[in-house]
Amino acid sequence: MKKQMISGPSQTVPTANIAVNKSRIKVYNTKGEMPTYYLQSGQEFQIEIFNPTTEVVLAKITLNNKALSQGGLVLNPGQRVFLDRYLDVAKKFLFDTYEVANTNEVKAAIENNGDVKVEFFRERTPQYYGGTLTLQGTSTFGGSFGGPTWVNNTGGYVPNINGTTCTTGNASFTTTSANLSNISNTSGVVNTAFYNSSVTMDSLSLGDVTVSSTPIKKNKLKTLGSMLRSAKTVETGRVEQGSSSDQTFKTVNKDFEYFAFHTVEYKLLPVSQKINTVEDLNVKVYCTNCGAKLGKGHKFCSSCGTKA
To answer: Exposure winner among 79, 84, 145, 213, fewest CB in 10 A?
Structure first.
């Protein structure tokens, strides 16, 4: 079983949850293991993404260990989205199941089935640095040069003129075609990798978020026959393309940092793999003394005081 991989600072961070009909379903957290959702075969679902921060963030989604798109979904501060479709194809998310042999070789092959990962990236903020350069006299970066274009290079800010001798600190060098070819920024901005040209929701369907404490359909306890059958086979599920979606996007031109500052991961499994508990079955409990119905979590009968 894969282990839980949730990273990020302790302060407020974006969230990602699985929802059906815009109603968040119950997530099962096994200590030390991946938080898990259980879905029916053929069930369409949404990924509810919320940005509670004061920054614009980019959400990049990976399903079955494959990136949903080269871009991602841009969320403004306070924005909540129920994403129901692929970014590049107008098809809804669908959980599809099938049975395979219960062998170690097959388990390795289906290891990434049902994996959902959402990575969050901050919007890239330009950073400017000052410095002093010598070129036929001393000039301070940030002033009006009225001549060569000053660009960012590993040795400092140098003029964009081939064959020019310049000084940075105690070092003196001559610009060449080789070192000028490595220059990718002519504004004095520090060069860092980033994502560009992602999408944002054109029309959003927002609303109150409700949490369902019960499965989508009432589950039955595993029968002896199903348990014996599972010794030879196992049901697994993958995220596939479902019916057509009417959600639309618009392209935005923003830059985001290369490294994610927060990551959320979940596992989607068929309901056949779920081990039901008393809470899942909604079993009614009655007082052994007076027969009164006991409320959930009550340790004593409210009618006669008998310990439950």
So the answer is: 213
Reported pTM: 0.60
Residue 288: pLDDT over 80: no
d(CA 190, CA 153): 9
Distance between CA 40 and CA 132 in Å, rounded?
A: 65
Give the phi and the psi of residue 95 in degrees, each rounded to 5: -95, 115
Strands (E), 51-147: 57-63, 66-67, 73-75, 80-83, 91-101, 115-122, 132-134, 138-140
Maximum Cα–Cα distance for the chain, whole Å? 100
Q: For the stretch 182-217, what's the b/e string if a residue is b when 16 or more beta carbons lie within 10 angstroms of its beta carbon?
A: ebeeeebeeeeebbeebbbbeeeeeeeeeeeeebbe
Tell me which of 162 and 119 has the higher pLDDT: 119
